[in-house]
From TrEMBL:
NCBIfam families (UniProt xref): not_thiJ
Residues annotated as domain DJ-1/PfpI: 3-164
Pfam families for this protein: DJ-1_PfpI
GO cellular component term of the entry, any: cytoplasm
Keywords: Repeat
Organism this protein belongs to: Alkalispirillum mobile
SUPFAM superfamilies to which the protein is assigned, alphabetical: Class I glutamine amidotransferase-like (SSF52317)
Keyword Repeat: yes
Presence of the UniProt keyword Repeat in the record: yes
CDD domains: GATase1_DJ-1 (cd03135)
The protein, known as: 4-methyl-5(B-hydroxyethyl)-thiazole monophosphate biosynthesis
Length: 192
């Protein structure tokens, strides 16, 4: 079974976090949510999220993927956390998946994970990130083991693509069909 860590920072974008967590769990993927500070997370729109564990405890195990939800404040806090940056570099070095949506691709860039790669993000989030080939109009961009997405409106496509990468296209289709969402509504995904 694939395992995924979703670090949750104060001020994260709840729609992105919950969509990714929910859809990956529907696919039978082992998802661990971890609060950076060990406290309930006050998300950007006032929703309180209670993580499974604190980040320090979550880092005691290995993951196939780490997914960073966006939200300007949440992304800023993720980017300032050296534990997150170290984890991103570790996964990237071992060619495991790193994924980020909305403002969080900036965290990947800050950790050096996006150097020489194609990516997308919330408009303006990667403008000052040299070495990144911005694919701004794309909802989801996959470049090797790095996956990025634009924002809350692309969260479902992002999550379904993550399922596909971890457990195959058939599993992603099964999850999507159970949601009563026709596959033809899936937005184009750019493969580098």
């Amino acid at each position: 079974m694939s395992s995924v860590l979703v670090p949750l920072a104060q001020g994260c974008e709840e729609l992105e976090a919950v969509t990714v967590i929910d859809l990956l769990r529907r696919a039978g993927i082992d998802v661990v949510t971890a609060s950076l500070d060990g406290e309930p997370v006050q998300a950007s729109r006032g929703v309180t999220l209670v993580a499974d564990t604190a980040l320090d405890e979550a880092l005691d195990r290995d993951y196939d993927m780490v997914v960073l939800p966006g939200g300007a404040e949440g992304a800023r806090r993720l980017g300032e956390d050296e534990r997150v940056n170290t984890l991103l570099r570790k996964l990237a070095d071992s060619e495991r998946f790193t994924a980020a949506i909305c403002a969080a691709p900036k965290v990947l860039a800050g950790a050096g994970v996006l150097e020489g790669r194609q990516a997308t993000a919330f408009p303006g989030a990667l403008d000052d990130s040299p070495g990144v080939e911005l694919r701004g109009g794309e909802p989801v961009v996959v470049d090797g083991s790095v996956v990025t997405s634009r924002g809350p409106g692309t969260a479902m496509d992002f999550a379904l693509r993550l399922i596909e990468l971890l457990d195959g296209e058939q599993k992603a289709v099964e999850v999507e069909q159970a949601l009563q969402r026709p596959a033809e509504h899936r937005q184009y995904v750019h493969e580098a």
